[in-house]
Amino acid sequence: MQRRLVLVRHGQSEWNLKNLFTGWKDPDLTEKGVEEAIEAGRRLKAEGLKFDVAFTSKLQRAQRTSQLILAELGQRNLQVIEDEALNERDYGELTGLNKDDARKTWGDKKVLMWRRSYDVPPPGGESLRDTVARALPYFVREILPQVLNGKTTLVTAHGNSLRALIMTLERLTPEELLQRELFTGAPIIYEMRADSTIESWRDLAGAPADAAE
């Protein structure tokens, strides 16, 4: 039995382009983001993949990326399950701010701590640990059983909510997780064993991801 899981970070969004903290705000994809999503679909098509089930967040940049991928695979009618557990990390008071402006307001050291620490949240927002606590139970309860039952599963979400899943899949420490870069529109394909450990994985990365979410 094949147990295949594919994770895709959404294509570039309008706020990625503007270098703004996005979080739970809901900008659409840029033209480049649309191209990245279509290219992700082409790469998956070249791998001969078809999906049995798909999951995404409640935010349109991830939803549209999923739609474009599935359209490229000829699977426009596949049901896509949406849940806010897969939403991006909530950046609280940083949301909507340019990173440079945030540094001017709070200082370089504090903004870097909020962005790169595992357990320190920005004001009114979530730390990466908080995002893991939200996304991981949903993954274990709803997504992983589909994979282990032999369904080829697509998850289209966000940099930090995907890191929450990757932390468990790749057995990363919090320090290793913070160094795990994800590329926009680049599928990561996991082949899994029956005990939910990874047999192998490949990152079909293209251009470097913008760090702003």
Share of residues in strands: 5-15%
Number of helices: 8
User: What Rg, in angstroms, do the CA atoms define?
Assistant: 16 Å
Fill in the CATH topology. Rossmann fold
Alpha-beta content class: alpha/beta
CATH 2nd-level architecture: 3-Layer(aba) Sandwich
In CATH, what is the class? Alpha Beta
- What's the end-to-end separation, in Å? 36 Å
The overall pLDDT, averaged over residues, is 93
User: What's the count of strands?
Assistant: 6
Question: How many domains, in number, for the residues?
Answer: 1
**Largest sheet entry:** 6 strands, mixed
Which parts are unreliable, with pLDDT below 50 for 5 consecutive residues or more?
Answer: 207-212
Strand order of the largest sheet: 3-2-4-1-5-6
Helix content: 40-55%
Order of helices and strands: EHHEHEHHHEHHEE
Q: In one word, what is the shape?
A: globular
Organism: Hansschlegelia zhihuaiae
EC number: 5.4.2.11
Pathway: Carbohydrate degradation; glycolysis; pyruvate from D-glyceraldehyde 3-phosphate: step 3/5
Keywords: Gluconeogenesis, Glycolysis, Isomerase
